Amino acid sequence: MSKAKQSVGSEIAKILRADLLPNLLAILESFPALRSMLPQVLQLAVVIDANVVYGELRWRLKKRPRPNLRSSLEEALASHVLIAYAPHHLDDEIHEHMEEIAADTKQPVETVTREWKAFRSFIHFHTGRKGAGGRVSDPDDAAYLDTLQEVAVRGIYTRDTHFQDSAAPLVFVAMDMRNPMDGALRRYARATAVRVGLSMGSSVSAVVSVEALIALGRLLKAFSAAFKRLSSGAQLLILAGVTAVILHPKSRAKLKELWEAFQETVRPLLWDAVVEAMYEFAEATETAEVARREIEVLLPAARRRPLIAHARAVCLASSRPLSEETILRRVRTNGYVSRNGGSAVYLRRLLRADGKFVESAMGWSHKSRTTT
Questions:
Q1: DSSP secondary structure code for residue 359 in this structure
Q2: Can you give the pTM of this predicted structure?
Q3: pLDDT digits over 64-94, tens only?
Q4: CB within 8 A of 320, min separation 6: which ones?
Q5: Segment 187-200, tens digit of pLDDT
Q6: Which of 46, 63, 82, 194 would give a disulfide with 157, using CB separation of 3.0 to 4.6 Å?
Q7: What is 191-258 written as a DSSP string?
């Protein structure tokens, strides 16, 4: 691969970063015509356990080589490929052990607080009804099982073997920061951002090209109609002016010179960029598919969950109120399957009966969304 092509490829990766994936998906959601043209993106919802959070904080405070370096876990969360939920008990537990974490990492408590606040922003908190998740040997695990019971997720993201005493679906995480799941999620997020971004660009270009041709046709039609309305003298003057420009040797030579310069400079650069984008798209597609297969192998079997649990998950994860149509679309992405396909009427009845959902002119939100 030439240096020019490598440069184009690196620029594509820099522009289409993994943390831009949520913005790309938001654009897709706003344009239904584009959604059908692009692949469905994996978004793995989990209840994140305290031991995973402790590992992340200790890495940030003690082992991170550069202050702005992101772990694979953080990158997966920032890209929304991994969506994490937790009971408020997690927040209480971290605050309770702030001094212990500070002593262990040899950092001031203020620094620990800052890092927790930064990482906490990726977690969506909801405390389930006490006892909803059943009984466990470790009382600290009960809150996580209660949340698991009320929020539609794939499983508990944990290193804790205590959960094996329960029937909870588990996503086990390796003890170091380079565990297979986090690594696969990061590779999937990066490749998918490139894949979706380039797909979206080509789709938009195709739509814009069609619209441009239609607009050009309308413009020519309007110009023709306007030209016909002119007097004969005005028409002759315009035609004479255009003819003079075309026939005049110097004008014709200048137009030819400009066209040749365009072909020699701009066209090769555009062609190189197009070819490299095609290579990047093919490579990103393969990387994303391989990473997705690696992720699926590590996951527990998907469970059938009620619509209200899926609605709770998507509303908690949203930064703004959602319409019923948007909730129904997102719950299907989250894995909800209904024999009758679900309906806005049925969803509205469930949301109103739950007591934790708030309806406004902008849509539905969940009270736990603002609880701290």
A1: E
A2: 0.77
A3: 999 889 999 999 999 999 999 999 999 999 9
A4: 362, 363, 365
A5: 999 999 888 877 77
A6: 46
A7: HHHHHHHHHHHHHHHHHHHHHHHHHHHHHHHHHHHHHHHS-HHHHHHHHHHHHHHHH-HHHHHHHHHH
